[in-house]
Every structure is written in C-alpha cells, then in structure tokens.
Design a protein that fits this description.
- This protein has helices at 2-30, 34-46, 50-53, 56-71, 76-90, 95-108, 111-122, 124-165.
- It is mainly α and 170 residues long.
- Among the domains are: 1-30; 127-170.
- Helix 2 (34-46) crosses helix 6 (95-108) and helix 4 (56-71) runs antiparallel to helix 5 (76-90).
- The longest helix has 42 residues, at 124-165.
- The relative contact order is 0.08.
C-alpha cells in the first residue's frame, strides 16, 4: 500500500511538473520570430500606421497636464513648463507602440503569410489598396453614420407608435 502511495505521489509530482511547464512552453512558442516581426513592421510602414500614434506622447503629456491643472490651478505656469520638459524627455517613446503592433501582427500571422502580404502590398493591386483603403474606410464610416441617423429616426418612430398603443405620449 505504501508503494502504491509513493507511485501515485511521484506520478502526481511528475504530472504537476509537466503541467507547470506547459504554459512556459506555450509562451516560448508564442514568441514570433525576428523575421516575422520585421515583415510585420514593413507592412505597418507601408500602411503608414505610425500616423495613428505619432502624437501619442505629446497628447498624453497634454492630457496629464490638463488633469493635474484641474486640482492644481495655482501651479499652471509650473505645469506648463514641466509639460515641455516631460514631452522632451519622453519623445520617441511612441515607437514602443509600433513595436507592440508589429508583435501583434507577427503573432496573428505566420512568417510566410507576412512575407506574402509584403509581396502583395508591393504589387500594383496592393499599392492601389494602400492608396484607396483610407478613403474607402472614411466614406464607409460616413455612410454608416448617415444610415444610423436615418435608422434612429425609424426606431424612434417605432417607440413612439408602440407607446401610443399603450396610451402614452412621448
């Protein structure tokens, strides 16, 4: 009986070690290759993704200064001066966003898929997509907003009609 207990204890220990090592292996395997990250960076550069976060540092500095000013109005001059110092000290940190985005892309696509995307974006059709997509997205968003406004009127009318059926005017 004691030997069975020892065997079960040893088996439990081995199973525990294997299971404890499984997440570590998954994390190791989840790390994208440097080549995949490089291809992802190339795609993001072609898509001008840095334009999305170029002003991140100055914007966050401004937001922080504005928040601090709300409860420290008497320090306005000092906070304005400090904002310039902080912005200069932290300039360039927005590049961390680009690094993170590249890693996200590299973990969502295989290295080969990323290389194929780079090839596609360099093709005439890919170049057209890169040039036309921002306008198409902007026009799509404008259409969706217009549709939502018109549809909201229909929804509002339906609410009012149903409430009238209940004898309630709104």
């Amino acid at each position: 009986m004691k030997s069975l207990s020892r065997i079960l204890s040893a088996a439990g220990l081995v199973l525990g070690l294997v299971l404890a090592g499984a997440p570590a292996q998954a994390q190791t395997q989840a790390q994208p290759s440097p080549a995949a990250v490089a291809a992802a960076k190339e795609i993001l550069a072609m898509k001008h993704a840095s334009a999305m976060y170029a002003a991140a540092v100055p914007n966050l500095v401004q937001q922080t200064k504005d928040q601090l000013l709300q409860s420290n109005l008497n320090y306005q001059k000092d906070l304005n001066e400090v904002a310039v110092i902080v912005a200069q000290k932290l300039a360039g940190r927005e590049q961390e966003i680009g690094e993170g985005m590249a890693k996200v892309y590299a973990s969502e696509f295989t290295e080969q898929e990323l290389k194929d995307l780079v090839t596609f974006y360099k093709s005439p059709l890919g170049q057209k997509l890169l040039g036309s997509e921002p306008k198409a997205i902007q026009e799509s968003m404008a259409y969706m907003n217009q549709w939502a406004q018109q549809f909201a009127e229909i929804v509002n009318g339906e609410f009012r009609a149903e409430m009238r059926k209940r004898g309630k005017q709104i």
